[in-house]
């Protein structure tokens, strides 16, 4: 029974072993031909071979190409015929009573996601050449990463979860903060700009250098796909160059400082300015302005002057997203997230007050210092000092934005307008952000708050219990992955309000990409698919996590949604098989296979390579669903038998005995069914005869009546039943043969 039904399951290639060997061989002698890997273990799904086909040489590439072609054909076939998922879609729609719309087949996504899936498989295959486990990240040899068949040494990819990246973010954040504070501040407070021109010059261009270096770092930042870190520098760069962040980053490093030269030329004039400008390029670049009495020490001119030329560097603020990224990362990493959040809010408040103070001072300059009571009065020794200018402006800005103090009454229209805007901003920013920060976050981002609360709780717990830093960082990374991949949602709870058919339709739609790869689902009836889908729960496993261990009691089976897992020996390294998206495992120990020497114990260890999203199906749920679908049950049993047989864990005698018992019961049922069929046919035949007799009797009665009235001869109809049709009728009760009724004139008295 087992073997006959398993025709579709091909022999497995131990992909990870092959990967390791291929890698070893290619490292040892890059030109040596690639021998076929031994086939000691079996693959769970044929598709996995494509997903993990690792190769770093031409032979392996060809193999991969062929397997991809086959995979493509299989996909095509799958798309041509309406898949079981489509049928399931129809099934749930019919259960919902909603008519099938024209576009529904396309909406099922059967054709769409296939391309993505293939594209992704292709990418994974490329990435598998020299893979090695490294703290849950698939690392790749540096000299194979440039793609396009070129063997080139590339700059290393940067793992954003590593400390180096965070430290780099700190450096970039300082540069961004410097620009946020000083570009605006120096543009308004000319004395500040004039104070230390050489220091500003050095700091400005140091920040620019950091910005440029940051673009290089950003272009090589790894990102997660299918739970594995993408480290192909070609892909990383492509990903960055196509992102919106790249555009913003480019704008933030545009050399707008060149406008200093223009400003200088226009201020000095062509005759004298050229020589002066050319004589000291550093003065030009540091913004030596010639209005008034500019000197290298007074880039903004001697007297009051707003805005100073440094304002052209305002585009440096376009790097603010990096600052936000730093805060996000800090929040995730720190054990005191609440302190971090408070500091972040305080920093933003201070920045807003600072900018507002600068605007106030600029307006005072525009209106005229000391011309009324509202503007800043610069006269007097104390008021003309830089510190007093700034501190008063900051004080005024704080009072206005927080609306907690008396400020001088505005006098001109411009002043009124500015104060109104400030009040509004103050009300909006402070009343909303500061006053209701807790409830705002809770209401506006409940999922994030809930997630953060969970994460904070675990962090506190780990700190309290003195969990080792390595384990604590694994837990935090798991949360990071959960949030970054939108897996933090408790789908069961969110969808609990929906009726089952709608829930199933939604679940099929959301997880279509993974479900369509599962062979069990491709062949099974739509009803079963819906039953199973409704009972799936999603679990996320971290790199190196054991999903199940050999010898454990099996309580659930798994379907891989995303990521990669390996079936490993007890040493945790020797891989027998690789499981990719759509693979099913963990079913052997829950199927109660007769002859299973391990009983209901796990037959192998299964470990997650990177991050893996896995659907989990409880044993009781599976059995409940399979009760009504014997075909699917048989198919699963077959698969389990095959795996057990390969590992020598199947007692064939026991299995045969169970099959024989099973067969004898089947025979009895078959015999009973045959007898029932015969009885039904006989009853049917009797009914037909009865009908025919009734017809004859009624005709006889009609004939006699006519004869009596006309005085003619008596017509006696007789019934002839076609004997061959009668036999046919007995043979096949389903054919609806009709009795032939022939009426012949019978001479009177015959
Ligand atoms: P179970 O024994 O319940 O738990 C471990 C699972 O690993 C097992 O079910 C199978 O689904 C799977 N498994 C065991 N051996 C192999 C193998 N050689 N190849 C692929 N999968 C396997």
How would you classify the helix and strand content by structural class? Answer: alpha+beta
N→C terminal distance = 66 Å
Average predicted local confidence, pLDDT: 72
Largest sheet: 4 strands, antiparallel
Name the assembly state: single chain
Beta strand %? 5-15%
Beta-strand segment tally? 12
Which hetero ligands occur in this complex? adenosine-3',5'-cyclic-monophosphate
Radius of gyration: 40 Å
Shape: elongated
Helix content: 55-70%
Number of helices: 31
Which spans of ≥5 residues are poorly predicted at pLDDT below 50? 1-82, 96-149, 268-291, 712-723, 732-750
Order of strands across the main sheet: 5-12-7-10
Structure characterization notes:
The strands form four sheets. The protein has a four-stranded antiparallel beta sheet with strand order 5-12-7-10. The protein has a four-stranded antiparallel beta sheet with strand order 6-11-8-9. The chain contains 31 helices and twelve strands. By secondary structure, the chain is an alpha+beta fold. Bound molecules: adenosine-3',5'-cyclic-monophosphate. Adenosine-3',5'-cyclic-monophosphate binds at residues 41-42, 44, 548, 554, 567, 576-577, 585-589, 602-604, 606, 643, 646.
List keywords for this structure.
750 residues, alpha+beta, 4-stranded antiparallel β-sheet, elongated, disordered N terminus, disordered C terminus, binds adenosine-3',5'-cyclic-monophosphate
Give the topology.
Layout: H1 2-5, H2 15-28, H3 46-52, H4 58-80, H5 84-96, H6 104-107, H7 112-127, E1 132-134, E2 137-139, H8 163-188, H9 190-195, H10 197-219, E3 223-225, E4 228-230, H11 233-241, H12 244-252, H13 258-268, H14 270-279, H15 281-285, H16 320-333, H17 337-367, H18 386-402, H19 413-434, H20 437-444, H21 446-464, H22 469-484, H23 491-495, H24 500-510, H25 512-515, H26 519-523, H27 526-535, E5 537-541, E6 546-548, E7 556-562, E8 565-568, E9 575-579, E10 584-585, E11 605-608, E12 612-618, H28 619-626, H29 630-646, H30 652-710, H31 723-731
Antiparallel strand pairs: 1-2, 3-4, 5-12, 6-11, 7-10, 7-12, 8-9, 8-11
Adenosine-3',5'-cyclic-monophosphate is lined by residues 41-42, 44, 548, 554, 567, 576-577, 585-589, 602-604, 606, 643, 646.
């Amino acid at each position: 029974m087992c073997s006959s039904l398993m025709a579709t399951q091909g022999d497995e290639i131990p992909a990870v072993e092959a990967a390791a060997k291929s890698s070893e061989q290619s490292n040892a002698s890059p030109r040596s031909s690639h021998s076929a890997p031994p086939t000691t273990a079996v693959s769970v799904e044929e598709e996995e071979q494509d997903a993990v086909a690792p190769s770093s040489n031409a032979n392996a590439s060809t193999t991969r190409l062929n397997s991809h072609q086959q995979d493509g054909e299989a996909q095509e076939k799958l798309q041509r015929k309406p898949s079981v998922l489509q049928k399931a879609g129809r099934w749930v729609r019919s259960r919902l009573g909603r008519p099938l719309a024209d576009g529904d087949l396309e909406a099922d996504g059967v054709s769409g996601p296939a391309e993505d899936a293939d594209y992704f498989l292709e990418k994974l295959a490329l990435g598998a050449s020299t893979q090695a486990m490294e703290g849950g990240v698939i690392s790749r040899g540096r000299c194979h990463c440039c793609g396009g068949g070129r063997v080139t040494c590339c700059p290393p990819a940067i793992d954003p979860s590593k400390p180096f990246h965070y430290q780099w973010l700190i450096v970039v954040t300082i540069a961004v903060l410097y620009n946020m504070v000083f570009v605006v501040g120096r543009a308004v407070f000319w004395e500040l700009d004039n104070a230390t021109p050489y220091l500003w010059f050095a700091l400005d261009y140091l920040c620019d250098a950091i910005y440029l270096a940051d673009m290089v770092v950003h272009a090589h930042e790894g990102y997660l796909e299918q739970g594995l870190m993408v480290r192909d520098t070609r892909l990383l760069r492509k990903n960055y160059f196509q992102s919106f962040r790249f555009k913003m980053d480019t704008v933030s490093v545009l050399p707008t400082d060149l406008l200093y030269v223009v400003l200088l030329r226009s201020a000095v004039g062509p005759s004298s300015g050229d020589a002066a400008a050319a004589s000291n390029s550093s003065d030009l670049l540091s913004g030596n302005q010639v209005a008034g009495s500019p000197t290298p020490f007074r880039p903004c001119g001697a007297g009051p002057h707003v805005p100073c030329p440094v304002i052209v560097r305002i585009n440096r603020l376009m790097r603010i997203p990096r600052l936000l990224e730093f805060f996000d990362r800090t929040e995730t990493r720190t054990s005191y997230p609440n302190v971090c959040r408070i500091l972040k809010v305080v920093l933003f408040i201070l920045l807003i007050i600072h900018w507002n103070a600068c605007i106030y001072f600029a307006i005072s300059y525009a209106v005229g210092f000391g011309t009324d009571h509202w503007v800043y009065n610069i006269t007097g020794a104390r008021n003309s000092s830089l510190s007093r200018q700034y501190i008063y402006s900051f004080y005024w800005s704080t009072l206005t934005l927080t609306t907690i103090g008396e400020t001088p009454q505005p006098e001109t229209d411009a002043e009124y307008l500015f104060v109104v805007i400030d009040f509004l901003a103050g009300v909006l920013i402070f009343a909303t952000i500061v006053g209701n920060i807790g409830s705002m976050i809770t209401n506006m981002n409940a999922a994030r708050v809930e997630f953060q609360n969970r994460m904070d709780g675990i962090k506190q717990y780990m700190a309290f219990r003195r969990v080792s830093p390595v384990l604590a960082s694994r837990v935090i990374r798991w949360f990071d992955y959960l949030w970054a991949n939108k897996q933090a949602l408790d789908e069961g709870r969110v969808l609990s309000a929906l009726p089952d058919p709608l829930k199933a339709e939604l679940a099929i739609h959301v997880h279509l990409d993974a479900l369509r790869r599962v062979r069990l689902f491709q062949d099974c009836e739509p009803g079963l698919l819906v039953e199973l889908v409704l009972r799936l729960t999603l679990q996320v496993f971290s790199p190196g996590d054991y999903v199940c261990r050999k010898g454990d009691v099996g309580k659930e089976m798994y379907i891989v949604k995303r990521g990669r897992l390996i079936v490993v020996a007890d040493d945790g390294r020797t891989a027998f098989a690789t499981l990719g998206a759509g693979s099913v495992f963990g079913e052997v120990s829950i199927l109660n296979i007769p002859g299973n020497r391990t009983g209901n114990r796990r037959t192998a260890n299964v470990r997650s390579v990177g991050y893996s999203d896995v659907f989990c199906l409880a044993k009781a749920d599976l059995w409940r669903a399979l009760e009504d679908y014997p075909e699917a049950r048989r198919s699963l049993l077959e698969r389990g038998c095959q795996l057990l047989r390969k590992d020598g864990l199947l007692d064939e005698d026991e299995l045969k005995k169970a099959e024989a018992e099973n067969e004898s019961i089947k025979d009895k049922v078959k015999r009973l069914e045959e007898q029932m069929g015969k009885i039904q046919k006989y009853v049917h035949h009797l009914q037909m005869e009865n009908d025919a007799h009734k017809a004859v009797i009624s005709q006889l009665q009609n004939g006699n009546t006519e004869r009596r009235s006309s005085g003619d001869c008596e017509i006696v109809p007789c019934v002839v039943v076609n004997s061959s049709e009668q036999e046919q009728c007995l043979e096949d009760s389903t054919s609806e043969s009709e009795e032939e009724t022939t009426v012949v004139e019978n001479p009177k008295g015959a």
